[in-house]
Amino acid sequence: MRAAVLMLSVLAAPAMAQGPEYELALGWDSKYVSEGRDNLGRGGIGWAVLAASFGNLTPYAVVGRADSEAFTEWNFGLEYALELMPDLDAHVGIQQVETYADERLSETELFAELAWHRIDWLIPSVAYTYSFETSGYFVELSLHSNWHIGEQFTLSPYITQGLDYQYVTEAHNGRNHLQFGLEAEYMLSDSLAVSGHISRSIAGHDIELEMGDEARDETFAGIHLHWSF
């Protein structure tokens, strides 16, 4: 799975970098929820991100470490920003995921994202992830709405529908989970920002088939600090 802490999201339309630019991010989430599932038995997870942009090309490294159990995840990836139209942002990339827990897991993924920024208060996007290990893919259809409360503070309610096609399970193709929440970002300076979110994930049919009576909805939150230089 792609670590959400990377924050290559539709909160704002990214400008194409003209020279080397770097970003360092540190954060914590109360749960590690991806594809509508809590990946940890208990507790939250801390994140660290280092990314470097050279024009449209961005290599990055992400590490996450659980705070209440033995779990570490590394993500190493390369992302390319496509210049399609002034209001249409597209990204494609590849990443390697290495997980160290009760057993070691290794996974290679291709991903692509598309977001339309014509109207800032209604931004539709679609994200696609393909796994070589499962030969399956996962799709997320999202709507974000950016509300600028002054020059430094932005509130962004969002809703996402996740669709699983043998990416997580083989038992069912289709509705995996519905997630909604509120994201917030405050610019402390031109290069330093703090962001947070509170989110609710509703289990869909795919999760219910996989987990049976143990299927559950998830509520979680997080806070992150971003430094660009």
UniProtKB/TrEMBL annotation:
Which UniProt keywords are present, listed alphabetically? Signal
Asked whether the UniProt record includes Signal among its keywords, one would answer yes
- From the UniProt annotation, give the residues forming the signal peptide: 1-17
Query: What is this protein's name?
Result: Outer membrane protein beta-barrel domain-containing protein
